[in-house]
Protein backbone atom coordinates (compact mmCIF):
# COMPACT_ATOMS: atom_id res chain seq x y z
CA UNK A 1 0.00 0.00 0.00
CA UNK A 2 1.33 3.39 -0.99
CA UNK A 3 1.29 6.19 1.53
CA UNK A 4 0.48 9.61 0.23
CA UNK A 5 2.97 11.69 2.18
CA UNK A 6 3.10 14.49 -0.36
CA UNK A 7 -0.01 15.68 -2.16
CA UNK A 8 -0.48 18.51 -4.63
CA UNK A 9 -3.85 20.06 -5.38
CA UNK A 10 -4.21 21.54 -8.87
CA UNK A 11 -7.29 23.71 -9.26
CA UNK A 12 -7.70 27.19 -10.71
CA UNK A 13 -10.13 28.07 -7.89
CA UNK A 14 -8.14 29.43 -4.96
CA UNK A 15 -11.05 28.95 -2.52
CA UNK A 16 -11.35 25.25 -3.46
CA UNK A 17 -7.61 24.84 -3.01
CA UNK A 18 -7.64 26.56 0.38
CA UNK A 19 -10.59 24.52 1.70
CA UNK A 20 -9.30 21.22 0.33
CA UNK A 21 -5.82 21.88 1.67
CA UNK A 22 -7.15 22.66 5.16
CA UNK A 23 -9.40 19.61 5.08
CA UNK A 24 -6.59 17.32 3.95
CA UNK A 25 -4.25 18.77 6.58
CA UNK A 26 -6.86 18.04 9.24
CA UNK A 27 -7.51 14.45 8.06
CA UNK A 28 -3.92 13.64 7.09
CA UNK A 29 -1.66 15.74 9.37
CA UNK A 30 1.45 13.73 8.41
CA UNK A 31 1.14 14.66 4.72
CA UNK A 32 2.76 17.63 3.02
CA UNK A 33 -0.12 19.29 1.16
CA UNK A 34 0.53 21.98 -1.46
CA UNK A 35 -1.89 23.77 -3.75
CA UNK A 36 -1.37 25.30 -7.19
CA UNK A 37 -3.69 27.33 -9.40
CA UNK A 38 -1.29 27.43 -12.34
CA UNK A 39 -1.02 24.01 -14.01
CA UNK A 40 1.56 25.25 -16.54
CA UNK A 41 3.78 26.65 -13.79
CA UNK A 42 3.51 23.43 -11.81
CA UNK A 43 4.57 21.33 -14.81
CA UNK A 44 7.62 23.58 -15.23
CA UNK A 45 8.58 23.27 -11.55
CA UNK A 46 8.29 19.49 -11.72
CA UNK A 47 10.04 19.24 -15.10
CA UNK A 48 12.99 21.34 -13.90
CA UNK A 49 13.16 19.46 -10.56
CA UNK A 50 12.52 22.68 -8.66
CA UNK A 51 9.77 20.84 -6.80
CA UNK A 52 9.84 17.23 -5.64
CA UNK A 53 7.45 14.95 -7.48
CA UNK A 54 4.51 14.32 -5.14
CA UNK A 55 3.09 10.92 -4.28
CA UNK A 56 -0.31 12.10 -5.49
CA UNK A 57 -1.90 14.94 -7.44
CA UNK A 58 -5.57 15.83 -6.99
CA UNK A 59 -6.40 17.34 -10.36
CA UNK A 60 -9.30 19.48 -11.55
CA UNK A 61 -10.28 19.04 -15.20
CA UNK A 62 -11.80 22.38 -16.14
CA UNK A 63 -9.07 25.01 -15.87
CA UNK A 64 -8.02 27.85 -18.16
CA UNK A 65 -4.77 27.82 -20.16
CA UNK A 66 -4.09 24.12 -19.43
CA UNK A 67 -6.96 21.80 -18.58
CA UNK A 68 -6.60 18.56 -16.64
CA UNK A 69 -6.31 16.41 -19.78
CA UNK A 70 -3.49 18.57 -21.12
CA UNK A 71 -1.83 18.42 -17.69
CA UNK A 72 -1.93 14.60 -17.77
CA UNK A 73 -0.40 14.62 -21.26
CA UNK A 74 2.39 16.93 -20.01
CA UNK A 75 3.12 14.58 -17.12
CA UNK A 76 3.54 11.75 -19.63
CA UNK A 77 5.54 13.84 -22.09
CA UNK A 78 8.04 14.92 -19.42
CA UNK A 79 8.21 11.50 -17.70
CA UNK A 80 6.93 12.88 -14.43
CA UNK A 81 5.91 9.78 -12.48
CA UNK A 82 3.15 10.43 -9.98
CA UNK A 83 -0.30 9.11 -9.34
CA UNK A 84 -3.37 11.24 -9.97
CA UNK A 85 -6.91 11.41 -8.69
CA UNK A 86 -9.31 13.55 -10.67
CA UNK A 87 -11.25 15.89 -8.37
CA UNK A 88 -13.79 17.67 -10.53
CA UNK A 89 -17.25 19.18 -10.51
CA UNK A 90 -17.81 17.56 -13.92
CA UNK A 91 -19.98 14.47 -13.74
CA UNK A 92 -20.07 13.89 -17.48
CA UNK A 93 -19.69 10.21 -18.34
CA UNK A 94 -17.29 11.04 -21.16
CA UNK A 95 -14.93 12.71 -18.64
CA UNK A 96 -15.11 9.70 -16.33
CA UNK A 97 -14.45 7.32 -19.22
CA UNK A 98 -11.58 9.46 -20.47
CA UNK A 99 -10.00 9.46 -17.00
CA UNK A 100 -10.09 5.65 -17.00
CA UNK A 101 -7.83 5.64 -20.08
CA UNK A 102 -4.89 6.96 -18.04
CA UNK A 103 -2.99 4.34 -16.05
CA UNK A 104 -1.82 6.94 -13.55
CA UNK A 105 -5.39 8.04 -12.71
CA UNK A 106 -6.44 6.05 -9.67
CA UNK A 107 -10.02 7.28 -9.51
CA UNK A 108 -12.42 10.07 -10.42
CA UNK A 109 -13.91 12.00 -7.52
CA UNK A 110 -16.75 14.45 -7.71
CA UNK A 111 -16.29 17.70 -5.80
CA UNK A 112 -16.53 18.53 -2.99
CA UNK A 113 -13.83 16.63 -1.18
CA UNK A 114 -15.32 15.15 1.99
CA UNK A 115 -13.97 13.28 4.99
CA UNK A 116 -15.62 10.10 3.65
CA UNK A 117 -13.80 10.45 0.33
CA UNK A 118 -10.48 11.17 2.04
CA UNK A 119 -10.83 8.09 4.25
CA UNK A 120 -12.06 5.83 1.44
CA UNK A 121 -9.68 6.90 -1.33
CA UNK A 122 -6.62 8.47 0.27
CA UNK A 123 -6.29 6.64 3.58
CA UNK A 124 -7.82 3.22 2.83
CA UNK A 125 -6.89 3.47 -0.87
CA UNK A 126 -10.04 1.89 -2.28
CA UNK A 127 -9.74 3.10 -5.86
CA UNK A 128 -13.13 2.10 -7.20
CA UNK A 129 -14.74 4.59 -9.52
CA UNK A 130 -17.46 6.77 -8.09
CA UNK A 131 -21.01 5.70 -8.66
CA UNK A 132 -23.07 8.38 -10.35
CA UNK A 133 -26.78 8.25 -11.08
CA UNK A 134 -27.45 7.87 -14.80
CA UNK A 135 -30.87 9.56 -14.55
Strand order of the largest sheet: 2-1-3-4-5
User: What is the CATH superfamily?
Assistant: Response regulator
Residues in β-strands, percent: 15-25%
CATH architecture: 3-Layer(aba) Sandwich
**Strand and helix order:** EHEHEHEHEH
Arithmetic mean pLDDT: 91
Number of strands: 5
- Classified by CATH, the class is Alpha Beta
How many helical elements? 5
Globally, the shape reads globular
Could you estimate the helical fraction of the residues in percent?
Answer: 25-40%
Number of domains in the coordinates?
A: 1
State the secondary-structure class: alpha/beta
**Could you tell me the radius of gyration in angstroms?**
14 Å
Major sheet? 5 strands, parallel
Verbal overview:
The protein contains five helices and five strands; from the N terminus they run E-H-E-H-E-H-E-H-E-H. It is of the alpha/beta class and 135 residues long. Strands 2-1-3-4-5 form a five-stranded parallel sheet, with helices on both faces. It is globular, with a radius of gyration of 14 Å. It has a single domain (6-101), classed as Rossmann fold (3-Layer(aba) Sandwich), CATH 3.40.50.
Write the layout of secondary structure elements.
Layout: E1 6-10, H1 14-27, E2 32-36, H2 39-47, E3 56-59, H3 68-77, E4 83-88, H4 93-99, E5 105-110, H5 115-123
Please outline what is shown here.
The chain is α/β, with parallel strands linked by helices and 135 residues long.
Amino acid sequence: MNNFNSIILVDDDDINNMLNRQFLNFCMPQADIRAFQDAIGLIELLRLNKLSTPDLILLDINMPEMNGWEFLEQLDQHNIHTQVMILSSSIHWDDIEKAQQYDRVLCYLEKPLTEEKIVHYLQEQNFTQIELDSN
